[in-house]
Amino acid sequence: MPRSIQPLRASLASLLLACTFAAAPVRADAPTHAAAVPASTGVVGVTPAQLDPQFWIARQAQPDALLLDAAGIAAQNARMRAQDPHIRDMQALPAQWSRQEMLKAIQALSSPPTRTLYDVQGQPISPAALDDLQRAMALEAIAPQSSPRFGLVTARAALRTFPTSLRAFSRTGDLDLDRFQESALFPGDAVAVLHASADGQWLFVASERYDAWIQADKVAIGTRGQVLGYARSPDFLIVTGATVRTTYTPEQPQVSQLQLDMGVRVPLLRQWPVDALVNGQHPYTGHVIQLPIRDAQGQLQLVPALLPRTADVADRYLPLTARNLIAQAFKFLGERYGWGHDYDARDCSGFVSEIYRSFGILVPRNTSAQAVSPALDRIAFDAPRKGRAPKDMARRQAAVDALQVGDLVYIPGHVMVNIGHLDGMAYMIHDTAGGGWLGADGKRVAAHLNGVSVTPLEPMMASDTGSYLQQITNIQRIRPKGATAAE
């Protein structure tokens, strides 16, 4: 199968997207970085002042130096589309798919669970219920040859492992990590509809970075040209806040108070007449944008909507600078961790993706794919063997000491964004369900940070005996190889 239509990587659960993990224990042979736990925060090495993005911006020697210009970003995205199999070029999607290609795409994601899962009441999900999910996919209905339909997502929508809203958990009482939750798509995202569930309520779709099941009522079907042309409008707005919402309107409920997340790109109707109402409201206090909706038959319509002028948006992608990288990351500070974009939020790799999307930079969806992407400037480390600390601790520390703002640090199941150095330690902002460090008694403190957090890297512990530093698998830089630090 051509690279452009290879099924994207399967389940988040199998791909370590959780950003919470059970690392293999290793001896703490490497020196442990001691840091105080301020009473004002209760988090190792972090004071209230460090929760202000200006604290980190002020430490940059050249915070406004351009790290990549528009041409450099375009070249980087071209490399990503050409080199990374986890990115699909929607413009190059084939017009015909065979049954074998369809089955491969669906079964790569929707394979039957092999372990016991529990529902929200803590009851085991029965084999019969899991069999029902397999039947719901209606794989026998896939034709020998078929042509995908195209659609635009009309509202933030969950991507699911199976055509179901049933939530599934690995342990009773742990309701944060829904194993059937994969990711999310956002208003205006283009999809190719490959298949429908037996009841027609779910669609299996291919998008730029993910294949999964989505509720059919969140997709408006249009022509290929309409759908793929939507994001190519030369006049557009980029959401630069964590989230923004359209203006309330009873005239057009589908675009009323619609959530748009960081990095979402929408056409700007710049030539809208100044005295023409938008859904019953004069437009002079807002931006007139164009959004997709579904008509009664599920077909695509493009309609005007208003974003308040106070909304955190821009009419071009943000310049890629240290100042902007830090500022964008901190806009999510304190947001609760959301596995697979659950809870109307995001997880560690979604956090990274949304930050960089506001600069117009494309990265894979999953932590495991980001960490090894051949299109990025990668430093790789051997994973430590069970029960042994890695032998390259000096190399690891040297790489951490050389981190630049925006560099991505990966440990199994988790990614962090560097924001600078302080007191001999590298500081990270990251969306984590866990987090821990050694207490005064030498035992690991499990902090359950469970949200977008600032922490130093070196004191953090991945297990009772293994530090984050020992567990680093990759460092990725979204800049030209050999770029010098601005710090």
UniProtKB/TrEMBL annotation:
Keywords: Hydrolase, Protease, Signal, Thiol protease. Gene3D superfamilies: endopeptidase domain like (from Nostoc punctiforme). The keyword Hydrolase applies. Residues 319-479 form the NlpC/P60 domain. The keyword Hydrolase applies. GO terms for molecular function: cysteine-type peptidase activity. It comes from the Bacteria. One of its GO terms (biological process) is proteolysis. It holds the Pfam family SH3_6. InterPro entries: NLP_P60_dom (IPR000064), P60_peptidase_YkfC (IPR027017), Papain-like_cys_pep_sf (IPR038765), SH3b1_dom (IPR039439). Residues 1-28 form the signal peptide. Belongs to the peptidase C40 family. This is NlpC-P60 family protein. It comes from Pseudoxanthomonas composti.
